[in-house]
Amino acid sequence: MAGVKQARDGAVGILTLDEPASLNAMTPDLLGALAAAVAEMTGDEDVRALILTGAGRGFCSGQNLKASEALGEDIAAGVMRFYWPAFKALRECRVPVVVAVNGVAAGGGFSLAMAGDMIVAARSASFIQVFSRIALVPDLGSTWLLPRLVGRQRALELMLLNEPLTAERAQEIGLVRDVVDDAKLMDEALTLARRLADGPTRALVATRTLVEESEHTTYEAQFRREIELQATIRKSADAIEGRNAFVEKRKAKFTGR
After folding, report:
1. Residue 71 — very low, low, confident or very high, per pLDDT cuts 50/70/90?
2. Any idea what the Cα angle at residue 12 is, between residues 168 and 105, rounded to 5°?
3. Which end of the chain has fewer CB within 10 Å, C or N?
4. Listed residue (180, 110, 181, 191) closest to 146, CA to CA
């Protein structure tokens, strides 16, 4: 598929943004290809985790300004038409998503990195919001995602001052799970993705849903919502296997069903 490479490692699907000459800058074609690739890859029930990364020296340098005209005169409508489907596909993916950030994740690329479930960063990785430097506001979900990951004060600091965030500092403030040498980035991402793929993926994704819903509800309502979802999940094949394995004192073998 143009702009996005697809590969498999057992139960792990690997999607690579493949426009290295522009540091994988966003265009309607690239984001459309990403949305389609997520749908195609997760359409296979044997795929139980995804990795998203970038080809070349950077993960994603943000919006490709040369392609901005393709969004049309109504920028909001254009972004929702061409960009939102890819972000939605990642946020609502039926399997866990690991983002492997190599090099820069700038502007909208920073937003894209946060759209997955966990970030693993190469030591050379850096994150920068950029927007206020050119008198714009953060977009593509940054003002929703970043405060939830690092807190209001740090989010505002990153958005208002535009200081580059090193991989090590990103890990310190909770944005990134692991920082590894560049040559080991995909190995580390695969290790994490395989671990997730071996787990009860239906329950893992339901957990993600509960965490996101908790931002918009009361303690009592969330208390009830957890039990309601639990009542459904406990009937799954994985939940039954988990209980049986516990009783039989053996390691559970989950299938994602």
Report:
1. confident
2. 35
3. C
4. 110
